[in-house]
Specification:
The protein has helices at 3-24, 34-46, 51-58, 62-74, 96-117, 122-142, and strands at residues 78-82, 90-94. With 143 residues, it is mainly alpha-helical. Helix 2 (34-46) crosses helix 4 (62-74).
Amino acid sequence: MTTETRALASDLSLAVVRLSRHLRGRRADAQVSLTQLSAVATLSQEGPMTPGALAAREKVQPPSMTRVVASLAELGLVQRSPHPTDGRQIIVTLSDAGEALLADETHAREAWMNEKLSDLSAEDLATLRGAVEIITRIVSASE
């Protein structure tokens, strides 16, 4: 690895951390943790699943996801129902309140991002589109 590549890795990592911090900052009065929000987003994108499957997708240990699901159920953001074929399992489904929470969270982040992007040139926007594609490929390859 070249010195230039190492410097790019460092600069990119720092930029992503700072961007994440700004996006998290949109959540000043957040009702849920980022871990809970991520689980809600996964259920919204992928549909109902067992806590074990959700833990695998979120890359956390099953006992941790069991606690997350319990807290989300307590808040009314998910519903738990018996598994149709395995009496030892449950299926977790996103509730209407969970969908609404996710929509509010997404709107707050996107509003901030739209404001920032509106100040950029067409060339900068095209560069960012390309960077998003590359970052998505990097993340997908490591999952």
